[in-house]
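ARCHIVE CARD
Drawer: 12
Card no.: 0347
Subject: one protein chain, sequence and derived structure
Cross-reference: see card 0346
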Amino acid sequence: MGVWHLPRFIGLGRAKQLILSGQLIDARAAQAIDMVDDVVDDIELMGRVQNITERYLQNPWAAVLRSKRMINQAFDLPFDDFCLSTSRCRLRPCRPRIMLRRCKRIVKHRPESGDTKRDL
């Protein structure tokens, strides 16, 4: 849901401006307001995806999954609930194989190269 996510990524004021005006922005403008991390030419896209994927695959997946859960909860929960939740999270086993398969699929299903710019 863009209406929920966008204000959290780029701030409430910018999100209102884009959503309410219907203004479209290009990839470079999106990068300038932290809406996307990287903007690359098609020719560079798969190399960039490969580099990012390899970097993620080097991390212990149990830690990645727990960190992701904790970051999301830190944003959504009151502090006391977050503290309680993180103490429970440390006790649960994670499923790193699922995340590993997802990352490998990114590399396997490469889009066709074209002349347009794409953002990651």
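Annotation on reverse: Strands lie at 39-41, 117-119. The radius of gyration is 18 Å.
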